[in-house]
Design a protein that fits this description.
Radius of gyration: 25 Å
CATH topology of the largest domain: Neuraminidase
CATH architecture of the largest domain: 6 Propeller
Number of helices: 1
Helix content: under 10%
Strand content: over 45%
Number of strands: 40
Length: 573
């Protein structure tokens, strides 16, 4: 009986360790594609390297919320059918929603439904890594207003381990609301949320937020009069909200942009600057030329604006539109990168451009930016950017003919030049309708992207990894995790362990020199030299591919200067 239990243990671990990241961009990694539609997908990265995928799912006839979790190798950790988060009544049309992963690898999900009647209301859920509903089967009701239309909730985890939610409320004039929950799902700002309204005919719209210091958050929203499609007196506002829910910077708010000429349908965006401040993105036609330009602003946690008043333009090229910038901050350099859609004045030709800004908002890639997708018929419809060290990695959904799309990505260095072989990678080469695109980047520099794909039916959820070197599938080699100087030499336990067929070995060296990693069998025979080269101080990760080795116990030894260490690992096939 003990022997059978041991075999079962090994079998379970062998299954969990099998890598599912697909190296074929024409196949990708399946997250979920069952009957009905899996749509409006979300993706979140956990500190332990696992990823959560959530979506609205019509397999039961009406939309429900489902969740899947993949380990660092792309293996599904929940049942193939995924975990049902909520089957409460939902509208036939969907608004936006949000998901994050917290410091304890829980998924925090916020969305709306009509369980309370005809109007959509927001709710918050915490789902544990085991798939348990931590805030009850029906989550937490965030609002105290049942009848108001309340779309597009957002959530962040604060530095003190709590969760702040924000969403729009009502119409004519619109306002927005905020609520804070602790880890047990208990409301911290009273039974009802904190409401923000203009007190006049001015509408407040598109509220968003990012975490700051001391449990606070920075919020960002639009204010305008007039109708939704023809907004007048358009402004963009920001405020810092303390952990207790009070305003920090001013009695009312600070103005990010005050020159008008923005359509009410446009959603401005906020990003963390990595230093408890915020980067604000928007577009406007401040010169009334009939074309729009994207702008950025940055503000510190202390409330100081760093870019010029009313922002820095992504491009000053006359005659073209420079639409809808997204941005990311590079802590290593203090610079900000932004990517945006470029069109001619008539919007018959579309391109995709990039720009970099110095710490004070000065353009660094020329007055027009860099063209990564020149003006043409193909459009980068949905896009995002993430950074690692001095590199920027951009991901986008490129429209093709007949409503079909390809998922693409590229990596650029400090000067904006391409890094990967072939320049632009096609991460999903199947010509099919693809909707939305989500991206994260883990501690190893591996990007993981997901999207809704109609390759088989009305929609499934698919994913693809991209290693830092631009390859797909399991990474085979050594990558630099952190080029700072570690305090000590260190060899960590490989993960996963047991494994089949790949595992990762992380180590740190405090000074430049030759590093050698050797793999030995149980008899002490050297079977592979995994690494033998000079490296600078830093933290690295090597991948051991044991496809050609038999099951059994192996040892790996590091030699770096006078430092040596050996650890044990188990290969199970």
């Amino acid at each position: 009986m003990k022997f059978l239990s041991y075999i079962l243990f090994l079998t379970l671990f062998a299954s969990a360790g099998f890598s599912q990241w697909n190296s074929n961009a024409g196949v990708n990694t399946l997250v979920c594609d069952t009957i009905g539609e899996q749509s409006v997908t979300k993706l979140a990265l956990c500190p332990d390297g696992t990823t959560y995928y959530s979506w609205f799912d019509s397999r039961g006839g009406s939309y429900a919320v489902y969740l899947q979790r993949l380990d660092a190798n792309g293996v599904r950790m929940f049942p193939a059918a995924a975990v049902l988060v909520s089957g409460n009544p939902q509208n036939s049309s969907l608004v936006d929603w949000d998901m994050i992963a917290d410091n304890n690898n829980n998924a925090i999900i916020t969305f709306t439904d009509i369980r309370n009647g005809g109007s959509i209301n927001p709710f918050g859920y915490m789902v544990s890594p085991a798939g348990t509903m931590m805030w009850g089967a029906n989550g937490v009701t965030l609002s105290d207003s049942v009848n108001a239309f309340q779309p597009n909730p957002r959530v962040v985890q604060t530095s003190d381990g709590n969760y702040v939610f924000i969403w729009r409320v009502g119409s004519g004039p619109q306002k927005f609301a905020m609520q804070k929950l602790n880890s047990a799902g208990v409301k911290q700002w009273g039974a009802g949320p904190i409401y923000f309204s203009s007190g006049t005919a001015e509408n407040y719209d598109w509220p968003a937020l990012t975490a700051s210091d001391n449990g606070s958050v920075i919020i960002y929203w639009a204010g305008y009069t007039g109708t939704f499609l023809v907004a007048a007196n358009y402004k963009l506002f920001t405020q810092k909200i303390s952990s207790s829910g009070t305003r920090v910077w001013n009695g009312t708010q600070d103005t990010v942009y005050s020159l008008g000429r923005v359509g009410g349908f446009y959603q401005p965006r906020i990003f963390s600057d990595g230093n408890n401040g915020a980067i604000y993105c928007w577009r406007d036609d401040r010169n009334t030329t009939g074309v729009s330009t994207g702008f950025l602003q940055r503000k510190t946690s202390a409330g100081a604006f760093l870019f010029p008043v009313n922002g820095s333009a992504v491009s000053t090229l006359a005659g073209n539109n420079h639409f809808d910038p997204v941005a990311a901050y590079m802590p290593a350099t203090g610079e900000t990168v932004a990517f945006f859609a470029e069109t001619n004045g008539g919007q018959t030709q579309v391109g995709f451009y990039g720009q970099k800004f110095s710490s004070n908002g000065t353009q660094m890639w020329g007055s027009s930016g860099i063209a990564y997708l020149p003006l043409g018929s193909n459009q980068a419809g949905v896009y995002s950017v993430l950074v690692r060290d001095t590199n920027a990695i951009c991901y986008y959904n490129e429209t093709q003919t007949l409503g079909n799309n390809l998922i693409k990505a590229f990596r650029v260095g400090k000067s904006g030049g391409y890094i990967w072989s072939g320049n632009i990678l096609t991460a999903s080469s199947i010509l099919s309708p693809k909707i939305r695109l989500n991206a994260v980047i883990n501690a190893s520099g591996m990007s993981i992207i997901s999207w809704q794909d109609r390759r088989s039916d009305n929609g499934g959820v698919y994913a693809q990894n991209i290693n830092f070197d631009g390859t797909f599938g399991p990474f085979l080699g050594v990558i630099n995790i952190n080029n700072g100087t570690p305090k000590n030499y260190e060899l960590l336990q490989n993960y996963p362990n047991p494994f089949n067929p790949e595992t990762r070995i992380r180590y740190s060296i405090t000074s430049a020199g030759n590093v050698k990693i050797t793999v030995y069998d149980v008899l002490g025979n050297a079977v592979l030299t995994l690494l033998n080269e000079k490296q600078n101080a830093g933290t690295y990760e090597a991948v051991f591919d044991a496809s050609q080795f038999s099951s059994g116990v192996y040892f790996y030894k590091i030699e770096a200067g006078t430092f040596t260490d050996t650890k044990r690992m188990i290969l199970i096939k």
